[in-house]
């Protein structure tokens, strides 16, 4: 929780979450992933700041287990298509 912005931290702490999904990628990809995740299911996407903000960051997806799974599946499928897998 120390690495989440104060505005998002308050919202996350007030919620009752059944699951947290973590996605690690370059920062620009996480903005796209956060948008896809929140549109795909009922999750709260929050950027988690790390030690090296210019390279790899993490996105935390808070929600119930099925919503988190749906969000992660959407992100995974999008990047598989982008990579031609």
Strand order of the largest sheet: 1-3-2
Q: Examine the secondary-structure arrangement and name the CATH architecture.
A: 2-Layer Sandwich
Tell me the domain tally.
Answer: 1
Spans of at least 5 consecutive residues whose pLDDT stays below 50 are none
Q: Give the SSE string.
A: HEHEEH
- Kindly, what is the distance between the CA atoms of the first and last residues, rounded to a whole number of angstroms? 35 Å
Silhouette: flat
Helical proportion, percent range: 40-55%
Molecular structure report:
The chain is an alpha+beta fold and 85 residues long. It is flat, with a radius of gyration of 13 Å. Helix content is 49%, strand content 25%. Strand 2 (44-48) and strand 3 (56-63) form a beta hairpin. It has a single domain, classed as 2-Layer Sandwich (Alpha-Beta Plaits). The protein has a 3-stranded antiparallel sheet with strand order 1-3-2.
Architecture blueprint of SSEs:
Layout: H1 6-14, E1 19-26, H2 27-40, E2 44-48, E3 56-63, H3 65-83
Antiparallel strand pairs: 1-3, 2-3
Helix pairs in contact: 2-3
Please sum up the structure shown.
The chain is of the alpha+beta class.
From the structure above, extract its key features:
85 residues, alpha+beta, three-stranded antiparallel sheet
